[in-house]
Structure prediction request, 623 residues.
Amino acid sequence: MRKASMIVDQFMKFTIKKINHQAKAMVVCDSRQAAADYKQIIDRIIAEEYSGAIKTLVAFSGEVTDSNGRKCTEANMNDDGVTDNDIAEKFKEDDYKILIVAEKFQTGFDQKLLHTMFVDRTLGGIQCIQTLSRLNRTYWPYKEDTLVVDFRNDADSVRKAFNKYYTVTTLTGDVDKQRVYTLKEDVENWNIFNEDEINDVCSRMVDKTRVSGVPSIILKIVKERVEPLSDEDKDKYRKQVNRFVRQYGFLAQIMDFTDPDLEKFYVFCKVLYKYLPYTKETLPMELLDMIDLDKLRIQLSFEGTIELEDEPVELKATRIGEVGQKKEDEKRTVAELLDMVNSPFANILNENDKIIKQIWEELLKDPEVMDAARAGNSYDVMINICKQKFDDTIVDQIDKYLNFREVLDKEKGFALTLIGKFVEAVAKQAAATSSLIYDEAVLKEKLVAEMQSEFAGVCSKMRSLQEIVDYLFFVLNTTSLPKLDGIDTLLKESLNNIYTNPHITSIVKYSFFNSLVQKYEAFLKKLYYLINDEEIPGHDGKDPALADSIHAFRCLWDLKHLTDEDGKKFSSYLQMLRAWRNDEAHNAPCTTDAEVDAAIKVAVSMYIYVTAYSITDLEMAGY
Prediction:
């Protein structure tokens, strides 16, 4: 949200005046989901703060699910449903000023009015040059300069990437494609995996219905055959796999390979490498605990023009040799180690900065993080989810200091340890809550006992609370549409842990509360579908929001007109739920266990309330 605000503000206050008021901008994202999210957030900011003065387009391949669970494509997000090359044509129109991309239009895209590029992904080597060079088209006499606002990369890395190709660049030495077979043989000699496993993984990689099984296959190989190796051998094996992957990727760009088995070996190794364990460059946990990362603030690290060296560069063809041997650990005192780690942060630590020491607890409270872990997502997926949550929860430019993609690429153990340990904690917590015995009869009994006094007035006029609760679970156990039924297991798991788990911690309980709040809209949509056999209609071609879902139920919409005590109580409950749901972080202002318990009662009450007033409608619909 903060990055999106910075992007829109920068464009509307500065960029829009450039190139004789014709300037356009590009936002470069690190994933398709990020592009879809950026599109929606930027459009909302433009509409709310700048009265819709400009329009945007988004470009990414295929279909992706955004952070709110919505299926997104270029066609359903862009005006007139434009896709692919038609987006470039549409972007030429005066109204369209910002193009948001993920792995598209970063090479070969020719738009002379492109002035500013906002980069929110790690760039390196030739990719850095190809991407930033979208800005170098001239438009005389109006285009006098360009601007890059980079949330990820520092000036030195960009300078190094450009310097290699700034003047005359030549490649010296022999390039022998046979070397890739030699590197392949080095990996095969370890006998870590076999041909059947390669074929199995590759076939799953091209089958969307089976690709989810790839992590379990790779993790089994790593656990049974890699982890038993000595630390030295694990380090050597990992480097040899990485060397093969990098060399094949390089040679494939300049040579034609007609060996399908070699390509499959490459695909397998590329996946395997991500799961291979690190055996070096990490600090003991007792030292990590002493590292000063309590506070962080957004800080401009560089502003200006990057000067390149005007000298020819010679790139040498690589040679095959032994992978780097693990060096003996350098001896340092504890004080020296802490100073080395803390010193990069010396200029950004200040008692007046925003405290971020509660970052772990904040993320553990986030229902999207916990739901993703309970859904069994792979380690890589969880790393990406947590990285994105770090961005949203702390500060816009956290990647400048904890750039997880760069960490994975360059084996910087410190930052990887932080996020890796967090992912492990989330996984353990999710496993613990997911393994809790689910006895629906016991859960219903607990729920009725807990909510009896809350619904004494309502039940005196209509069905018993037991019958209402039975219908609540009937809704959760009945099939409707796949996109609506996805909430069933998560809601039942949340209720089961809240009411039957004697060992639930405050943070976990808060996470389940947030999940209840976030999924109330989806519950209303499912309940409406079961009653009417159609979805809640939206407005102006957009999906229905929470307000539309509430409006679809008269019992909820009429609450604001009720004057009796129950009416006033449930009206205030609905307003609280809406306020929590509309809050950017979906968090209620709870600080104590008692306040969390009270907030949970409010949320659960609204599930029961709308169910109570919908039983007759369900019966009339044939249930």
Observations:
- Residues 63 and 73 are 5 Å apart (CA to CA).
- The first strand starts at residue 24 and ends at 29.
